Amino acid sequence: MSARVFRRSASPNPPVAVEAHGSTIVDADGREYLDAAGGAIVVNVGHGRREIADAMAEQAARLSYAHGSAFTTDALERYAVEVGRHLPVDDPAVYPVSGGSEAIETALKLARATQLARGEPERLIVFARWGSYHGNTLGALDLSGRKPLRRPYEGWLGRFRHVSAAYPYRGGDPGSQALGTTQELVDELEQALAAAEPGTVCAFVGEPIVGATLAAVEPPQGYWPAVAEVCRHHGVLLIADEVMTGFGRTGAWFGLDHYGVRPDLLVAAKGATSGYWPFGFVAASGEVFDAVTGAGGFVHGFTYSHQPVAATVAREVLRILEAESLVEASASKGERLKALLADGLGEHAAVGDIRGRGLMVGVELVRDRETREPFPRAAKLTEAVVRIARERGLLLYSGTGNANGVDGDTILLGPPFVVTDAELVRIADGLREALDLALAGLEAGAGA
Ligand SMILES: Cc1ncc(COP(=O)(O)O)c(C=O)c1O
Questions:
Q1: 41: CA distance to ligand 1 center in Å?
Q2: Are 354 and 443 part of one and the same domain?
Q3: d(Cα 417, Cα 203) in Å, to the nearest integer?
């Protein structure tokens, strides 16, 4: 038996990707795919940037690795200063790692270290929300309120607590574990905090705008300032998971910029290096940094944390975002994409909601627009839409379980910010065609 790749793809013979440029990926047969999801909402600056490859190669040739416990590097020191100008965090200190899940784990431990440094060892409880995703390592998965991913590992989970999703479209629906108004959500959080012993809650974690699990769901008005105030009042650290929303994805540098909220800890990854290198970081407020370093330092670290090639790539991505005003482009192109979708799908019988900010746009599919009844999971509607679209050269990102943890179908769009207008039109048209074909397939199946 020869060795083989343990592939992530469910398909036995996925196409072989050989090159990419702009918003297009090309396979070994020369077929082109319009990358309307930027992979998993990653490729903010677009594919095939020679300047990033050059910066990466130059750094790798000069200094590819020096252990973070012994050295710092120019690349890292400069990146921290440059990215700090955009972070909605007071006096930030940046702890770089290799991806979103690692960054979430780091933020959790940093929150715990902060509470210990403050002389509050009883603060162990962490709250997250249903209808959320924070990563696939065990700690990050335990935070995640995404049932389809939790299910096989449930026996190992349960360390963290969850409150309702802030999900206006489904707020109060039976089985949704979602609430729709700020008042309800804040009351629930206050009650959850009151139910814990005083002084035992460490942190609250949330995505400013929920990505993969709910497909670009914004909270109701006033939610984030109110939650930040509750956290501050109770001595609970606020951790913003900006892995997907960061670096312009929602049309602002960071998701919390839309709400004027500054967290104690901010977690970023994905768009920070736009997929060119595995990278993520935690930005800690100056207060957190001072507390932890003042109490003897942060007991943590990875072989690949503080990696200079990663920092170089992140610097170059940041430079491109600034130089080409790509965050502004995300804002305006996102509005255009939503308008195109509203034209093509706004009245579609199977489309319940079109939403999002910037180039993070979600479409929720429903069996009944009036009642918001989802398609049953067995119909695998979103999977069919994504498969049909891919066969026709359009890459989409699917989500399931948003309605009640099992049922529910969403499509998340997140093309590179360099996407052209003609490509936006193709995305909207292609999604509608794939949806109609998938629905026709369902009907044919039901009639057979
Ligand atoms: C909001 C959010 N947090 C964390 C993660 C985990 O990041 P990674 O896949 O890089 O580990 C993701 C990935 O999709 C994400 O969307």
A1: 10
A2: yes
A3: 33
How far apart, in Å, are the Cα atoms of 353 and each of 168, 216, 217, 250, 411?
11, 11, 10, 18, 11
Q: Report CA(295)–ligand 1 centroid distance (Å).
A: 30
Do 352 and 316 share a structural domain? Answer: no
- CA 271 to centroid of ligand 1, rounded, Å: 11
Q: Are residues 252 and 383 in the same domain?
A: no
Place of tokens 């400013």: 208
What is the arithmetic mean of pLDDT over 160-173? 97
The ligand 1 site (C-beta within 6 Å) comprises 40, 99-101, 104, 133-135, 207, 211-212, 241, 243-244, 269
Is 12 a domain residue?
A: no
**35 in a domain, yes or no?**
yes
Q: Provide the CATH number for the domain around residue 307.
A: 3.40.640.10
In angstroms, the CA 144 to CA 108 distance is: 13
For residues 312 and 349, state if they share a domain. Answer: no
Burial of 95 (0-12, 13-18, 19+ CB in 10 A): buried
Position 425 pLDDT exceeds 70: yes
Domain boundary among 279, 307, 323: 323
Question: pLDDT tens-digit profile of 43-76?
Answer: 999 999 999 999 999 999 999 999 999 999 999 9
Domain residues for 281? 51-323
Distance, in Å, from the CA atom of 196 to the CA atom of 188, rounded to the nearest integer, reads 13
Residue nearest to atom 10 of ligand 1 (CA): 100
Question: Is residue 4 in some structural domain?
Answer: no
Per-residue tokens: 316 = 């170059």
Distance of CA 361 to the CA centre of its chain: 12
Ligand 1 atom, smallest distance to 278 CA: 10
Domain finish residue from 323, 352, 370: 323
